[in-house]
Design brief:
The protein has 131 residues and is α+β, with helices and mostly antiparallel strands. The protein has a single domain, classed as 2-Layer Sandwich (Alpha-Beta Plaits), CATH 3.30.70.1060. The chain is built from two helices and five strands, in the order ββαββαβ. The chain has a five-stranded mixed beta sheet, covered by helices on one side. It is globular, with a radius of gyration of 16 Å. About 8% of the residues have low confidence.
Length: 131
């Protein structure tokens, strides 16, 4: 379907020159938020599941390149969905990385840019699936 870019930034303090010193800049992380095109009542689970092998190939590729920060499934009130957090140099790279997801064939991906000032994500129970 498509990739939509939605830029959202957390507020941060800037100095008097309206710029931030390099050491004060927050790390950017890109949230790739996938939402199925069809609501749950019309969602074709078999179409979703048939894409899982290609999804895992894509996630493994991101992981091997050091681009995958986190990933998981979930959903919206009435749509299937998923979240992939990527480390990218800029929004252009995040867009390119997002295009690799086979889930875009049955939904759309929105990209949210977040300035992260703290993160403690240590969840490795499923890490062997990415190797």
């Amino acid at each position: 379907m498509s990739v939509i870019i939605f830029i959202y930034r957390f507020a941060f303090k800037i100095n008097n020159k309206n710029t931030m010193a390099e050491e004060e800049r927050f790390r950017e992380i890109y949230a790739l938020i996938w939402k199925a095109s069809e609501p749950d009542i019309l969602f074709k689970q078999d179409e979703f599941e048939s894409r899982i092998p290609r999804l895992m190939v894509w996630l493994k590729e991101l992981y091997s390149k050091g681009k995958l920060a986190a990933c998981g499934g979930g959903g919206f009130a009435d749509h299937a969905g998923g979240l992939t957090l990527v480390n990218a140099e800029n929004i252009e790279e995040a867009i390119e990385l997002s295009k690799g997801s086979p889930m875009n064939e049955i939904g759309e991906t929105e990209i949210m840019v977040c300035d992260v000032f703290y993160a403690d994500l240590v969840e490795l129970k499923q890490a062997n699936k990415l190797k």
